[in-house]
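User: Structure please.
Assistant: Input sequence and predicted structure:
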Amino acid sequence: MKKAILLLTSFAALLFTTGLGAQNLSELVAPGKKVYVEIDDPFAGTDSAMPSDEYVEIKLGVLEAGSWAEAKTAGEADFVMHISAIKQRDQLVFRTTLTPSVRTKDGNVLWQGKPVWARGAAVNGFRSTYGATKAMARKCFEKDLFKIAGRD
């Protein structure tokens, strides 16, 4: 029990001294801040690649959900939104899973969202990336990140 309390207080002290607490996260993800959207290629290591329109769809979804401005490079951004993307065949359609995380420019993870997924269906125009992007905005940003950052 003493070890658990010591570990928790050490972690809290680390967050406080490095400025990575909720206050800093709140300032970082405020509307109008510049974000660099970094998306993993789900087909890395294969001879396929994610279509460029899907990258644009995810990037625009992130910018719109947070009311953020786009930074062309990580260096000019206030923070980096890293999106881990997985695309799999699920029966006759594709299933896209997205996991967002807010990172500092030097790679420190400040917030990690839960994975969200969507299958291609009539409601999203059979575009699984579109459905997953909407789910990420609703479930990860609105119900989690923005509440932690005091943006609800």
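Residues 75 and 105 are 7 Å apart (CA to CA).
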